[in-house]
């Protein structure tokens, strides 16, 4: 707690008392760490040569993680609708709007990435295996449609990287500059 500034100390104590639920915190960090790992795996595997057995295994692992994240994000959305979220500390309107826009776009990207990956995989002969279980294919082997979905998937990855950086920067600003205790609401 910040004892040098009594106002900041009050904000920290107030924010700490209004935390996300344990379930929301676990889902946040589980999704965040899995997405960061998946982005690393995705960037690594696109550089591997075609036909490499290790690359096939890595792609299937990436697909399974992606579908798992998709399901976890859906659960997180339901939990948030049911449980709500703690109120934000006082901040300027533009900051509140920026936080809302960033979080909204994060959800769009967290849903869009696995969907476009799944759809892109549905338009090739390999399909998608979810932890070894073959998922239904929604298409046929079509290189044109596959390229469209995988291009969107790649764009989503870069947008997601930028949004994560913005989200982390915002959290650090609240922790280190504003000292309003905002981060304590989501820390384990």
From TrEMBL:
InterPro entries: Cyt_b561_bac/Ni-Hgenase (IPR011577), Cytochrome_b561_oxidase (IPR052168), Di-haem_cyt_TM (IPR016174). GO terms for molecular function: electron transfer activity; heme binding; metal ion binding. Its main location: membrane. Its cofactor is heme b. It is found in: Cell membrane. Belongs to the cytochrome b561 family. This is Cytochrome B561. The lineage of its organism: Bacteria, Pseudomonadati, Pseudomonadota, Betaproteobacteria, Burkholderiales.
């Amino acid at each position: 707690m910040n004892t040098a500034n009594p106002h900041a100390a009050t904000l920290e104590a107030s924010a700490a008392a209004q935390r996300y639920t344990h379930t929301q915190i676990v889902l946040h960090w589980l999704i965040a760490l899995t997405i960061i790992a998946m982005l690393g795996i995705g960037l690594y595997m696109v550089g591997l040569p075609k036909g490499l057995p290790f690359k096939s295994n890595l792609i299937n692992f990436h697909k399974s993680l992606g579908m798992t994240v998709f399901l976890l994000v859906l659960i997180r959305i339901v939990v948030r609708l049911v449980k709500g979220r703690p109120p934000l500390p006082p901040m300027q309107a533009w900051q509140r709007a920026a936080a809302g826009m960033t979080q909204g776009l994060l959800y769009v990207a967290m849903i869009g990435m696995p969907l476009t990956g799944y759809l892109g995989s549905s338009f090739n002969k390999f399909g998608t295996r979810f932890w070894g279980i073959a998922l239904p294919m929604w298409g046929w082997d079509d290189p044109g449609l596959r390229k469209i979905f995988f291009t969107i998937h790649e764009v989503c990855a870069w947008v997601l990287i930028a949004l994560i950086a913005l989200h982390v920067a915002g959290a650090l600003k609240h922790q280190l500059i504003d000292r309003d205790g905002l981060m304590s609401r989501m820390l384990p």
